[in-house]
């Protein structure tokens, strides 16, 4: 009990410090760049806005030149604690939170589902291939690894050319039909599934190789351990030895990689969303960078950071549950 409490305390302190550092860097980076977002915004309306308007905009965005950097930092924290991420220049000064909320479900739905499926399918397949080492199942590894070496955008373009342009099985772009608007109906859900199927399958194919190879290699290491040999010597069924002993320990290193993948779901697969013109957070981040929309960039980076931290916390919890030695070593 004491070790568990110390483990939780150590991890809590670490993640709180990491969160503070990430937010501080997120605050400082735009202010260290040449110029500032207000200047970039004012240049679009040169001659149309008065100096008073510029001062009002700087005050709105917490970039008033008469305010010290320390006070801006405190004001930034105050806004964050109230859930205010600022306003987006490239979206008519719409609150950043509202802008991100529009794109976030699309990235989570597409990339999230693809990431979870690729992890589950790849891990299970890798465990079986590792268990049956030396059999015909080994051919799965080079095939899936080959697809993992092909860049996402090439797979996306090939998929569009074959399954959309030639065969006409799937739409080539967007998240739903043009002229439609998001609504909770069977017709709209069908459109979302049809438009998301091709990018999801593409991400799945491109991601499987890494999960299969990683799990297979860990299985080969675990199968030489004494506890696996003892379990087999006791006459336990192969399925129980495979999943209860070998796979349970072999999957531990996979969890860290999966945690990072889960965290970056929020950022989406930028290139893939660009190829399929999918309205996710990845494409939004690219558009915000091109438009020099610093408040939106800050908001997106902050959301991505929080997602990665939360995913790592979940990975630590999973490690502690599956391997009690983790709690003891950390404590």
TrEMBL record:
The lineage of its organism: Bacteria, Bacillati, Actinomycetota, Actinomycetes, Micrococcales. Its main location: membrane. GO terms for cellular component: plasma membrane. Keywords: Membrane, Transmembrane, Transmembrane helix, Transport. The chain crosses the membrane at residues 12-29, 106-131, 152-172, 192-213, 258-279, 299-322. This is ABC transporter permease. It comes from the Bacteria. The keyword Transmembrane applies. Belongs to the binding-protein-dependent transport system permease family. One of its GO terms (biological process) is transmembrane transport. It is a multi-pass membrane protein. Residues 104-315 form the ABC transmembrane type-1 domain. It holds the Pfam family BPD_transp_1. It is found in: Cell membrane; Membrane. InterPro entries: MetI-like (IPR000515), MetI-like_sf (IPR035906).
